[in-house]
């Protein structure tokens, strides 16, 4: 089979940079191996759902906050996890937004929600195994690093 005829499943996801007083809101999730993973609120889009609608829905479930006035920040696009059982073509949108409400996650996988100073965000990121976990791919965190440094780009080819 030639490379051109290979069809990859599409993974579409949206995450939101929620900012308050130089802090970024991160969610804490427990991974299968018991470790704590810090990530941006957001997640996979459902079939037929826009990235914007996915962002609003996922942030509400993961944090309890209602987001409005989504502003596009960046898009990551490209093949991810090539050669693993989870290989896919990724379209990951990043947004900022206005938000209101109280922190009250209803997602059972979320064990905490934390405002983290910009300077500490990168120190919480864990890279490495298992390789199927795309959130631990360093490329996924480059846009966040750029965002907290005040230098986001609009497009990140993976």
UniProtKB/TrEMBL annotation:
Gene3D superfamilies: Nucleoside Triphosphate Pyrophosphohydrolase. Its cofactor is Mg(2+). InterPro entries: NUDIX_hydrolase-like_dom_sf, NUDIX_hydrolase_dom. Residues 9-138 form the Nudix hydrolase domain. GO terms for molecular function: hydrolase activity. Pfam families: NUDIX (PF00293). PANTHER family: ADP-RIBOSE PYROPHOSPHATASE YJHB-RELATED, GDP-MANNOSE MANNOSYL HYDROLASE. This is 8-oxo-dGTP pyrophosphatase MutT (NUDIX family).
């Amino acid at each position: 089979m030639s490379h051109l005829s290979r069809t990859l499943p599409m993974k579409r996801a949206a995450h939101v940079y929620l900012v308050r007083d130089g802090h970024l809101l991160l969610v804490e999730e427990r991974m299968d191996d018991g470790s704590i993973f810090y990530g941006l609120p957001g997640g996979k889009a459902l079939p037929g759902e826009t990235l914007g609608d996915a962002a609003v829905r996922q942030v509400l479930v993961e944090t309890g906050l209602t987001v409005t006035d989504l502003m596009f920040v960046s898009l990551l696009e490209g093949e991810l996890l090539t050669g693993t059982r989870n290989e896919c073509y990724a379209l990951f949108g990043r947004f900022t937004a206005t938000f209101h409400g109280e922190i009250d996650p209803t997602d059972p996988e979320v064990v905490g929600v934390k405002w983290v100073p910009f300077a500490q965000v990168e120190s919480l990121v864990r890279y490495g195994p298992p390789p199927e976990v795309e959130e631990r791919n360093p490329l996924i965190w480059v846009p966040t690093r750029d965002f907290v440094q005040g230098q986001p780009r609009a497009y990140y080819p993976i």
